[in-house]
Amino acid sequence: MPTTDADTCVRSMTIMGSGDLDELTRVVHPKAVNREAKDEPPACRGEGPAAFAATARWLRAAFADLRFDVHDVMADGDLIAVHCTMSGRQAGPFVAYDERGEVAQAFPPTGRTFAVTQSHWFRMKDGQVVEHWANRDDLGMATQLGWVPPTPAFLWRMARAKRHARRNPAP
């Protein structure tokens, strides 16, 4: 049975969660762009499989047991929409970056689990992902992980995590 563009998009999400990053070269176009990378480490802001792999490493550094459970997939020409639930457990700091690629915020690990719905959008070219963007429930995730509302102790841990992240930048 031939692989469809929708199958390729779902596979790319599975790879992001599983960590089988060598396989990204099969599903991500060399010129692919992740429109969501603006808050991610600088290595995520490039093109192609290497940038997508950097995003996967960044997510997996913060979230153990990361997975995407796909609920619905819709295709219209070269555009694929995937409705899913992203879940995991925060085992490491989650570090957000500003437009200059500098650490903007760091959320220390809480050990809590989360599950939030998301919509991912993919544009396809030659059977590979060439563009990605998403709509996420970041507030829901932050609430489930205990980031908001922040306690004074958590704000202190955030400041310490931010200092550590600035001293040890992501590759």
From TrEMBL:
Source domain of life: Bacteria
Pfam families: SnoaL
InterPro entries assigned: Cyclase_SnoaL-like, NTF2-like_dom_sf
Coiled coil: none
Stated name of the protein: Ester cyclase
